[in-house]
Amino acid sequence: MRELAAEPGRVAALVAGAVERAAREDVPRVLGGAVALSGHRASSRPAARAPSESLRPPARRVEGATGLATPGSPRGVRIAPWRRREAEMVLQLAKAGMDVAIVVTDAERMVAFYRDTLGLTFQRSRETGPGGTMHLLECGDSLLKLLDPPELPPHQHARGGTRAQTGLRYLTIHVHNIDELVTRCEAAGCHFPVPLRDSTGGGRYCQLEDPEGNVVQLQQSD
Known about the structure:
Elements: H1 2-6, H2 8-25, E1 27-31, E2 34-38, E3 60-61, E4 68-69, E5 100-103, H3 107-117, E6 121-128, E7 132-139, E8 142-148, E9 170-174, H4 178-187, E10 194-198, E11 204-209, E12 215-220
Parallel strand pairs: 5-8, 9-12
Antiparallel strand pairs: 1-2, 3-4, 6-7, 7-8, 10-11, 11-12
């Protein structure tokens, strides 16, 4: 030790040599983007991955919980929002029906068909917008609105039912007397794109056109 203390240059050379040997023997590996030195070679096995969404235990609803819980999670635990499947209804319906409006070219003829041939209950007519008239007919809890505009729109709907174009293509009315209605519509000269037939879901149905080519489906399930 005294000899080394007397020769500081030799000590520096020994230290530098030791550092150089260590650098040659060690293997650099990357950890989180930084290069470190280790005395062991990095493993060739890939790092373990977190289980995919499809392999995770299925979520189950827990009574009193604010979201969904997976097996083993504490009661009432809140799960990430994107995994929640709340059964709450967004719409708070004021009535059990949906109103539909049809812009017509011949209001008198259309009212007569839906009122006299199909048997909807005429409610009233009222002014709408600048110069337009809306004729309201009741269909259960729903309203059919026949809108007679002051000027006809530049475009009319394409005939041909569901194969003519996209968008709203037919109305469905559920009835108990489909045979009687088919007879009445045939007597009125209605065109039937789909004649009366059995439905794959049970019951029978048909599709017919009103005087302006709008398709109405009659459905009887019993």
